[in-house]
């Protein structure tokens, strides 16, 4: 009997263990796919006077999160933000919408932010003439700055005189220190009276508050002057009044000599 009892007890234990080890039926983990986000928005001037301010209105659907990229290194996660640009220009605005499952879509527009009153054919006063200051160059005419074709001729306001430098090697720097800082947004160059191969072709304009740290403001590569005593006007974006401006001439049209009749740094508009 004891042996039979032991066998029965063992069978009961095996059955209990089998029942205890049986796994529960897994819960239903089916994930319902969310609709794919559809991204759309509109852009309109937010102010009738301030042309730099825009209202961006989100009209996207099926999203949880938004990311605006305004094309000027600024971003926003607001639904319909107002953004003010620092300067006029062409900006690529991108809106990306994303749902909770990580699906996303984007829309991009090209926004032309322009001052309706800006005239690219006009320029304001030359600060070299109205404020004044000191011109220095990395290497001058052999006769010095006051020579007949010395460096001071490039800022004397006379398009019929010129600065001439022999032995040009792409390292000429002309620096002007204003008596007081001024907010510039344009500059002009006038070509010399002869030998087009001496004209500047590649250059960089920079500004500085202290004469030590320089900020690139504008540059040209492969520029050509089609005539003698030709005046060219260039506009650039800037919101800092600099005391120092410098023009670094990197290349001319192949001559071992350099010439320029006039250089000015100007107020952007009259």
TrEMBL record:
The keyword Signal applies. Residues 68-118 form the PKD domain. SMART domains: PKD. Residues 1-21 form the signal peptide. Keywords: Signal. The keyword Signal applies. It comes from the Bacteria. InterPro entries: Galactose-bd-like_sf (IPR008979), Ig-like_fold (IPR013783), PKD/Chitinase_dom (IPR022409), PKD_dom (IPR000601), PKD_dom_sf (IPR035986). This is PKD domain-containing protein. It comes from Mucilaginibacter ginsenosidivorax.
